[in-house]
Amino acid sequence: MKLATLLLLAPFAAFAQAPKPAPLLPPADPAIQKLVEEISAKNLEADIRKLVSFGTRHTLSDTLSSTRGIGAARNWVRDEFLKYSKAGGGRLTVELDTFTVKPDGRRINKPVLMANVLATLPGTDPTDTRVILVSGHIDSRVSDVMNATADAPGANDDGSGTVLVMELARVLAGQHFPCTLKFVAVQGEEQGLYGSGHLAERAKKEGWNLIAMLNNDIVGNSHGFDPVITDATQVRVFSEGVPANETPEQAKIRRQLSSENDAPSRQLARYISRAALLYGRGHQATLEYRPDRFLRGGDHTPFNQQGFAAVRFTEMNEDYTHQHQDLRTEKGRAYGDVTEGVDFAYLRRNAGLNLATMAALALAPAAPAKVEVLTANLTNRTELRWQAPVAGPKPSGYVVLVRETSASQWQQRFPVADAKADLPISKDNFIFGVASVDAAGHESVAVLPVVGK
User: Fold this and answer.
1) CATH no. for residue 399?
2) Residue 33 domain-assigned?
3) Are 348 and 383 contained in the same domain?
4) 396 shares a domain with 295
5) pTM of the full predicted structure?
6) Are 132 and 147 found together in one domain?
7) What are phi and psi of 138, to 5 degrees?
8) Three-state DSSP state, 231
9) For residue 32, is it within any domain?
10) Among 340, 363, 386, where does a domain finish?
């Protein structure tokens, strides 16, 4: 039985005297579904083939040629963003965000002028300061991470993430959202997360109200190898449970509440899972409760380190014969990250999930502020209070989400009109979250309460 069915059929005794819960999922928005359907597998394939045509996109490769190397690839992505902007009415702004990296004694052997290709769709509400960012890395590599001249197609790692970002920019360039959306192809991931590190530092320095960073890295292959597993129905979403920048005081609160499974990034991952149920048409987000693959990191990592909610999308079953490999054939098996290793229908579904998440978040009100659980009265009830969000319009209402302490996903949902709730449910046995809701039913990411004073 699928997870969604299990959750919808999961009443438990503690809710017997509670107000009647609403359905677990909020209503789907037909406008969001329409945008998801506009994503084109044909466009994704054409864009990957164009990226591959640059030969290599190694961070240390040629920046002067118009046909080969990282410079040509960056300029092409920039020009495509500009085309999307023109077609969408000119609101999408485009920049090459340049920065210089000095030799590091590891994977940078000379001063390198790098550039992230960044497109920004400004929000329409001047009071809504929220920012949502989707990312893929444009650089590629072969077996030797310092080989900047050999052909490194990088079709899936991370051509797939780069063209996903481009296709979202194309579809959304003409749309109007209250908050700001950003689309970026970062450089330098393979050499040490340089592009994302630079952008995360910029976001922190400039005070971006970044509520979600969606990193897409290796999202285009549905056929795993060793063992051979084919799965085109799921994508993994990695998220941290304990914030990377947690302060001693925050650690004290986390231990007090046992909230190691409820960091902002983990709540964002749960939101993505719900978006898949609403708009995925059977495509599922499988939540992995660790920051990244075993002992590894990605372009979301610097954002986590700066204190932002950030997650990583990665295909279910990777084929390592297509990652970080010289182009060759051994014992009848072809090695190398070539276009033929990409499943474009699968990539399209992953792009749709990213788009649905961005649009649903952007249309929803900002999350509530200062969410607290009150403990002054010794009772089996749970009293909650919070404040309206500080950014954007006031919500039309709120929803309290509830799950058992042993449950990974929210199991019940209670709409409330005011900025408080009193539920006959024991805080000993359940975990609570509060989300803002607008009149159309768009919900924010849930916020875990802390102890009120």
Assistant:
1) 2.60.40.10
2) no
3) no
4) no
5) 0.94
6) yes
7) -85, -20
8) coil
9) no
10) 363
In a domain, 215, yes or no: yes
pLDDT tens, the chain, 453 aa long: 343 333 333 333 344 345 667 888 999 999 999 999 999 999 999 999 999 999 999 999 999 999 999 999 999 999 999 999 999 999 999 999 999 999 999 999 999 999 999 999 999 999 999 999 999 999 999 999 999 999 999 999 999 999 999 999 999 999 999 999 999 999 999 999 999 999 999 999 999 999 999 999 999 999 999 999 999 999 999 999 999 999 999 999 999 999 999 999 999 999 999 999 999 999 999 999 999 999 899 999 999 999 999 999 999 999 999 999 999 999 999 999 999 999 999 999 999 999 999 999 999 999 999 999 999 888 899 999 999 999 888 999 999 999 999 999 999 999 999 999 999 999 999 999 999 999 999 999 999 999 987
Domain containing 310: what range? 38-363
Phi, psi of 322 (to 5 degrees): -110, 5
CATH of the domain at 217: 3.40.630.10
Measured CA to CA, the distance from residue 284 to residue 115 in angstroms comes to 33
Rounded distance, CA 251 to CA 253, Å? 5
Measure the CA angle with vertex 393, ends 124 and 119; round to 5°: 30
- Asked if residue 333 and residue 318 are part of one domain, the reply reads yes
Task: Looking at the structure, tell me whether residues 213 and 162 fall in a common domain.
Answer: yes
Q: How many CB atoms lie within 10 A of CB 326?
A: 13
Environment class of residue 272 by beta-carbon count within 10 Å: exposed (0-12), middle (13-18) or buried (19+)? buried
Task: Report residue 36 as tokens.
Answer: 């998801």
